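Lab notebook: predicted structure, single chain.

Context: the supervisor wants predicted structures on file for every construct in the current expression panel, including those that have not yet been purified. This is the next one on the list. No modifications to the sequence; it matches the entry in the shared construct table.
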Amino acid sequence: MPGRLLELHVENFRSLRDVTIPLGPLTVLVGPNGVGKSNVLKVFDFLASIIRTDLQPALDERGGFDEVGFWGGVRPPTSMKIHLKATWTTHASLRAPDEYSLTIRRRSMPNNPDSYTLSRQESFAFKRTRGRGRRITISGGEARVVDRKAGRDSDGGSFGIQRLSSGLSTLPRLGRSDGGEEVTRVAERLSSFRVFDVDVAAARQPTRSRSTLAGRLESHAENLAAFLVQLSADEERWEHLTKDARRILPQLEAIEFEQVGGYADRLAVVLHERGLRRTTPLADASFGTVRLLGLLAMLYDPFPPALTCVEEIDHGLHPQALELIVERLREASERTQLIVATHSPSLVDRLTPQEFIVCDRDEDGASIIPALSAKDVEDIVAETGDQPLGELWFSGVLGGDLTEDEL
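Prediction complete. Output recorded below exactly as produced.
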């Protein structure tokens, strides 16, 4: 996998008052409802939106700074910060990672506390060549390029930028010598992020036989039929996907495509099931079956984005399906970095301490992520006689214990 995110630090974003989250190839966020798992995924959605539309439109789309900022406390926060470490550019390494930081500041108007102005500061830092780095800082209407060599900074020049315009959306236009190539690489990785959550009603719909909607599997699997048609052209990949589906759906014999209502240009996904004299259209399949096929399509995507986030991956799936899903997540994490949210003890049972992060929440409404380090989890497992991780978490030994109405 060509580089990955190493760490996410967030301050004052929804419930994320001050969290620093280490990220591996596969990171599973574990916790009950309402502790902030989804807000971690929303950070990446926000960054991707900034690249597509710029900073102010991305805030407006989410209701403005007061809706995006930390929800706890009596008053909105005066700033919000997102900081990333990654190994995306050519010379980046674990010891010298790429770094991107965005800080948005809120300043109330003196005569009207409900009215405010915003300002932003950004910085990009990355390695250029051996022993040499570059930093681009953005503040107000100026972007400044600074070269670092042998511990010394040298001014690489500055240029104007719109006051609330984000470097993520504008700096890729820089020339190669000014760092445009590296900023472009970071922006491409961030903009390709996908927060995946199968919309079962949309995923059931048929597709045009020559659909242009295939390409990439959409965030809610609304183009599932078109994407499955596309995947079926790869015989080996399709054989593995259908074998996995049969492993979870014992009555399933094959997944095929049929014309809809006599229209040659309309195709529906149909299931051949043992003992039935007719096929079952995906439109009539169970919620869990549609969701399973959506997840398998995502996991077998041959050209995935740099990062895929999955909301409540266990939703609608039988516990027996989770072992297979974890196996495929690990395999897919070699092609795309994965961040997954769950509150299923059965899924947690199948993870290692390095793969999952316990999420909790304090009395002030702030998320505690991680609530325990991987080393803490390993120590607890050793002390408790190697009990399954899901059982330890569900019982409260690892924090964030569930009540029955949260399952």
